[in-house]
């Protein structure tokens, strides 16, 4: 890794491809991890949530449990970066998701850039959800979005990782915050839709560039990903719980 690789966002595939039901793994973790050591995404056949932390990829299955991925395992969609914090601060009292986001916002250079987020600490509560493995023929994401399991993790130490993406690129990226959690024991986690932190360290990096790698499999090349309702669908899928 060169210095120019740090804090450059790499994404394999697009949000639009997931919305369209393209869940077949199209890159290996061996390849993906050459582009970053921190990230999020999903797994082949939409088999759970992906957390990449310290260069290791973990699958959070529908039961909420974490498993380490092999180099030969694949993903249809992931975002990664070589993370190096540009700024950070400590939290030493109970802070809600909304309060923490309000504290972060004025420290950034505005909502038109990409940011990586890493929150490490003791959480009073983390609300998570996970998707269940799908079978062919794959249905569009909207048709299976209600078939998710939610979990409430209380008084747990771990790390929330993810990205802030600007609204004007929705369809390629999830607009706003997109966060996943894994605990310190690497046993449980999931997609985060709410949290409260008791104490910990918040680190943010501004991404200096973005790269999108498009799948080359038949499903992606032959699918019609035009979707005039994409904004409403993203909002529906990403809403709390």
UniProtKB/TrEMBL annotation:
Catalytic activity: (2S)-2-acetolactate + H(+) = (R)-acetoin + CO2
GO biological processes: acetoin biosynthetic process
Record's keyword annotation contains Lyase: yes
EC number of the protein: 4.1.1.5
Statement: the UniProt record of this protein carries the keyword Lyase: yes
Pathways involved: Polyol metabolism; (R,R)-butane-2,3-diol biosynthesis; (R,R)-butane-2,3-diol from pyruvate: step 2/3
InterPro entries associated with the record: Acetolactate_a_deCO2ase
Superkingdom classification of source: Bacteria
Family: Belongs to the alpha-acetolactate decarboxylase family.
Name listed for the protein in its UniProt record: Alpha-acetolactate decarboxylase
């Amino acid at each position: 890794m060169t210095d120019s690789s740090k804090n450059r966002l790499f994404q394999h595939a697009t949000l639009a491809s997931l919305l369209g039901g393209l869940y077949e793994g199209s890159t290996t973790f061996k390849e993906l991890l050459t582009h970053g050591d921190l990230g999020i995404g999903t797994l082949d056949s939409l088999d759970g949530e992906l957390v990449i932390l310290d260069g290791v990829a973990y699958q959070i299955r529908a039961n909420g449990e974490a498993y380490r991925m092999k180099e030969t395992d694949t993903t249809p969609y992931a975002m990664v970066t070589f993370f190096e914090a540009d700024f950070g601060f400590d939290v030493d009292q109970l802070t809600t998701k909304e309060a923490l986001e309000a504290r972060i916002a004025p420290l950034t250079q505005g909502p038109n850039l990409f940011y990586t987020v890493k929150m490490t600490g003791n959480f009073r509560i983390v609300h998570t959800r996970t998707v269940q493995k799908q079978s062919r023929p794959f249905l569009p994401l909207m048709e299976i979005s209600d078939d998710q399991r939610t979990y409430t993790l209380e008084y747990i130490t771990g790390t929330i990782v993810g990205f802030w993406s600007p609204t004007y690129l929705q369809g390629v990226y999830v607009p706003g915050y997109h966060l996943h959690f894994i605990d310190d024991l690497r046993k449980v986690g999931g997609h985060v839709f709410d949290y409260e932190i008791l104490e910990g360290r918040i680190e943010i990096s501004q991404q200096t560039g973005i790269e999108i790698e498009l799948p080359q499999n038949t499903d992606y090349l032959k699918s019609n990903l035009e979707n005039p309702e994409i904004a409403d669908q993203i909002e529906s899928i990403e809403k709390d719980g």
